[in-house]
Amino acid sequence: DECMFFGPTLLELGKEEYENRMHVLCLSIGNESGLGKIRKKELEASCTSLGIDVKFVRSLDHPELQDGPKNGWNPVLISSIIEEYVEKHGIDVVITFDDKGISGHPNHSAAYNENTSYEPNFHDKINKKNEEIIEKEENLLNLPNSLLFVSTLQQFIRSRKSMKCHKSQLVWFRYLYIFFSRYMVINHLEKVE
To answer: What is the pTM of this model?
Structure first.
């Protein structure tokens, strides 16, 4: 998902000049078909190709967070895992799917729903911390409500290369996705209040 849906964002925000330390927290190793160990290694390779240090890539294999569109995830558990990870690593901003996920996939929307519905103070705290940092730096600026990232040709090629690290998932329709999906080129992010 990191390269299929967030490649433009990760490549832009991960630029050296911004001095951001990017993390990827995957709530499942993707073991729906018994390929969890392989998919974990593929995720690490993909993130490395996107410029994310593998020591900041974490995949979970929790019994209550198993991959699959029919597997509901415990929202309280998700909240505690994300909050603990954010606190431990001093993370300022969390980027995730919207409330619909991609094509309604319940695992995609689970993190969003948890952070906005069940623990509203958690997301406010993240955004508030970021606003305070910016206010110290630039008194006249407020965080924008949305951001748009459009990949350059070189970034698109890196996203494609990253996607090809997921060999166990590269079935014929994913090749079509690589060339025709807007998410491989454009990401539109909205701030959650």
So the answer is: 0.81
Give residue 61's domain range: 2-190
Domain at 45, CATH number: 3.40.50.10320
In angstroms, the CA 186 to CA 183 distance is 5
Handedness of CA 16, 45, 11, 66 (dihedral sign): negative
- H-helix segments, the chain: 2-13, 36-49, 75-89, 106-113, 120-137, 153-163, 172-180
* Residue pLDDT, tens place only, 4-49: 899 999 999 999 999 999 999 999 998 888 999 999 999 999 999 9
Q: What is the rounded CA–CA span in Å between residue 63 and residue 40?
A: 16
Largest Cα separation within the chain, whole Å, is 52
Cα dist from 68 to 28, 106, 108, whole Å: 10, 8, 10
Residue 45, SS3?
helix
CA nearest to 67, candidates 95, 23, 34? 34
Q: Is the pLDDT of residue 116 over 70?
A: no
Number of independent structural domains in the chain: 1
